[in-house]
Amino acid sequence: MKNIKVLGTGCAKCEATVALIENVAEALKVEIKIYKVEDPAQIMAYGVMSTPAVIIDKKLLHKGSVPAREEVEQWLKNG
Fold first, then answer.
1. Against a cut of 0.85, is the pTM above it?
2. Percent helix, strand and coil across the chain, each rounded to 5?
3. Would you say 16 and 66 are in contact if contact means Cβ atoms under 8 Å apart?
4. How confident is the model at residue 75 (pLDDT cuts 50, 70, 90)?
5. Of the residues 10, 33, 36, 77, which has the maximum number of CB atoms within 10 A of its CB?
């Protein structure tokens, strides 16, 4: 199971990122646990200045935009 954190203040892009990750995980039959981190202090603790940001298994993989579907597929297929 992959632990995924989506960092963002609840904006439309953040919600789109969560939905995209859930859809790709379902399509690939990968078990995930998604956490939405919306507290600005916690987001800053990760050193993230632009959201949405995606952290998978404690590794920051993306920030500043909604990731491409192909990117999410690679993240979930690898490791």
1. yes
2. 40, 25, 35
3. yes
4. very high
5. 36
Contacts of 23 (CB under 8 A, 6+ apart): none
- Cα-flanking dihedrals φ and ψ of residue 61, to 5°? -110, -20
- Enter the tokens of residue 2: 């992959």
pLDDT tens per residue, range 37-58? 999 999 999 999 999 999 999 9
Separation CA 13–CA 24 (nearest Å): 16
Per DSSP, helices labelled H in 1-68 are 12-28, 40-45
Burial class (CB in 10 A: 0-12, 13-18, 19+), 53: buried
What is the per-residue pLDDT across 9-22, written as a single tens digit (0 to 9) for each? 989 999 999 999 99
The single-letter DSSP state of residue 66 is: P
